[in-house]
């Protein structure tokens, strides 16, 4: 039976009317905000702004707005406060170790529940396992690695040469490290004009200590984040060595060395060796007026460094459309080419193996082999200290480490007190 012409027109008009909202929806712009910490020197904000602009040019249906929120601690506080008030960001780059807190407070979503297609799963599994560990809790992946690092040792080759050392050889173990630090310390009368080594004791005290503890053979916490091992005998050995660099070898400034000024002290020739994040590699490369080297941290019972830095986290307040937009942006910004360029521009470690196979990264490493040190150290890396109630559990350790470094407590007493505090804070999570 033929459809009357008027009826056909009515049906077509109705179909067109139904189609219009679908077209409008297809053209609708999804807006996403992400908080980003700016805590390390360098033109980070310009780089991130450039990524957002480039992504939006390629994806005009998504508007991306980065918000720079200060330090990692500031960023966490602002993101949590805004989210609980109902006006938080859709994503934030936060320390990978904050995952337990975000999960316990039911603030974030696991990426594996969104990245369910074959291509999405392959992307989520493309990162170095060492960088994924902090974000893997209860069988889910809660963090996408982005601004990641390890601790490395930088040394001034001129200072080594001046002290009669091979300028191209870094200390391989604690004994050599202490001996090199002694030899490169320079004094004029009672005044020290150049220290042999600086290990920062502010900002990320626990992180630097964890490197020493790993090298001494200790793990600071269990894999479930429910128990700490702060007063393990190997931890006591590690803290004693840190103190001995000052008290015994006279090669490290007394008291607590500041995290933020340590790279500047190195660049100004005030110290021959520093332990610091790979995130400062580009800064030091751009500003050092002397030849320098980059090495894995020296070993004691083993080599090792904790991983560090920030992951992208997805907050529950994001709508389904925003979740999809976030996933698209993350796949774009962590692609091999961009992961490689981010590493070249900042010094952070490219977070996936295929980034190191890009032509840009291969050319960069060929001209600057030091860039590969942090990547190679991943073989010996351990997940950064992370527990439930992480900030308070970590702060308990920071406080006691600083008490020991300033001579107010003996190493074992300080770590016993840190252990007691950590055990008390974690009691509700014991399982």
From TrEMBL:
It is found in: Periplasm. InterPro entries: Bact_solute-bd_prot1, SBP, TAT_signal. Its main location: periplasm. It holds the Pfam family SBP_bac_8. It comes from the Bacteria. GO terms for cellular component: periplasmic space. PROSITE patterns: TAT (PS51318). Keywords: Signal. The keyword Signal applies. Residues 1-26 form the signal peptide. Belongs to the bacterial solute-binding protein 1 family. This is ABC transporter substrate-binding protein. It comes from Limobrevibacterium gyesilva. The lineage of its organism: Bacteria, Pseudomonadati, Pseudomonadota, Alphaproteobacteria, Acetobacterales.
């Amino acid at each position: 039976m033929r459809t009357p012409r008027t009826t056909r027109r009515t049906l077509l008009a109705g179909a067109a009317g139904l189609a219009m909202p679908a077209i409008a929806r297809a053209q609708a712009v999804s807006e996403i905000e992400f908080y980003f910490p700016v805590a390390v020197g360098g033109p980070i904000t310009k780089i991130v702004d450039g990524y957002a602009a480039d992504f939006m040019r390629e994806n005009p249906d998504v508007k991306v707005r980065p918000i720079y929120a200060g330090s990692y601690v500031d960023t966490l506080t602002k993101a949590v406060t805004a989210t609980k008030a109902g006006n938080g960001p859709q994503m934030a780059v936060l320390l990978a170790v904050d995952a337990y807190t975000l999960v316990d407070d039911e603030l974030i979503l696991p990426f594996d529940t969104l990245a369910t297609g074959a291509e999405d799963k392959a992307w989520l599994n493309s990162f170095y396992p060492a960088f994924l560990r902090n974000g893997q809790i209860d069988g889910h992946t809660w963090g996408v690695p982005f601004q990641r690092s390890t601790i490395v040792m930088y040394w001034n080759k001129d200072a080594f040469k001046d002290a009669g050392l091979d300028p191209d050889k870094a200390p391989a173990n604690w004994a050599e490290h202490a001996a090199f630090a002694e030899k490169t310390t320079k004094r004029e009368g009672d005044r020290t004009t150049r220290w042999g080594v600086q290990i920062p004791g502010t900002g990320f005290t626990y992180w630097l200590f964890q490197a020493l503890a790993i090298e001494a053979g200790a793990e600071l916490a269990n894999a479930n984040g429910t128990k700490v091992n702060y007063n393990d005998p190997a931890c006591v050995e590690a803290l004693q060595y840190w103190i001995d660099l000052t008290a015994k070898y006279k090669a490290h400034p007394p008291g607590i060395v500041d995290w933020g000024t340590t790279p500047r002290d190195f660049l100004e020739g005030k110290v021959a060796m520093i332990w610091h994040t790979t995130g400062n590699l580009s800064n030091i490369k751009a500003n050092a007026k002397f030849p320098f080297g980059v090495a894995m941290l020296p070993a004691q019972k083993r080599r090792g460094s904790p991983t560090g830095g920030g992951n992208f986290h997805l907050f529950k307040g994001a709508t389904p459309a925003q979740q999809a937009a976030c996933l698209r942006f993350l796949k774009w910004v962590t692609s091999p080419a961009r992961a490689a360029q981010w590493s070249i521009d900042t010094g952070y470690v490219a977070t996936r193996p295929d980034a190191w196979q890009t032509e840009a990264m291969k050319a960069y490493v060929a001209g600057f082999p030091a860039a590969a040190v942090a990547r190679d150290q991943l073989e010996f890396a351990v997940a950064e200290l992370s527990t439930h109630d992480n900030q308070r559990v970590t702060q308990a350790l920071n406080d006691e480490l600083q008490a020991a470094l300033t001579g107010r407590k003996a190493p074992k007493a300080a770590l016993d007190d840190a252990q007691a505090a950590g055990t008390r804070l974690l009691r509700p999570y014991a399982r």
